Amino acid sequence: MKFISWNIDSINAALTSSSPRALLSRAVLEKIAAEDADIIAIQETKLPEGGMNKKQKEALQGLFPGYDYVFVSSAPPARKGYAGTMALYKKGMEVRAEYPRIGAPDTMDDEGRTITLDLGDLYFNLVYTPNAGDGLRRLADRQVWDRKYADYLKGLDADKPVVSCGDYNVAHKEIDLANPASNHMSPGFTDEEREGFTHLLSCGFTDTFRLVHGDVPSVYSWWAQRVRSSKINNTGWRIDYFLVSDRIADRVVRSEMMDSGARQDHAPILLELS
Hints:
The chain has seven helices and 14 strands. It is an alpha+beta fold. The protein has one domain: 4-Layer Sandwich (Deoxyribonuclease I, Chain A). Strand 6 and strand 7 (123-128) form a beta hairpin. Helix 4 packs parallel to helix 6 (191-202). It is globular and about 45 Å long.
């Protein structure tokens, strides 16, 4: 099976806008479509609670005619048009979708952050992990999220193997970002967030990129939009991951970043299992 995950940063803009950035985003969507993956996980859709309008649905169908999809969006009391996730899967697949509430604090469970697909012989989970925020204002809540999410995945894994992916909003180790010293205790590279990810892996999960590639340096999945030279200079972070249950790690064939061209922000990531 082949899986792709991408933080799209607004599916509406990517599907229907004609701005230069939207055109770059659409080119990435076309590249994703060409991979013919079984499942495509999208984070940060920023859709309203009711989902896409007719124009957006038609645009998505035009890009991915062979897929059905499920989604969950941010809903009151959470902010409108915030976060949100979507999963596309090939027509004919037997899929049962769940939209778990993990007991997270604040409005995190209302922000459309995770979807789980029961595929029969395994679970597929996609997640958009909350950011610690400017001034680390949400760090304490983020720590609770990390523990609750780890418990949730561990519970799935007790039933059958898990493939999990998404924007985890953390660079796990110093090798996972270009400038660890100057970013220590920045959102996404606090000791607390890194420890949370270590704990998640210790619950029985494998970081598939490191499994395949080892400690290869300077391979990232995100470059800051606000720094115009970040991608040119490759001053990026690896914050997007594919995890699998340890007991199916030997089925990993490929785990890699996809080329997103000149577009900054997140690049898609790809996993293939035998």
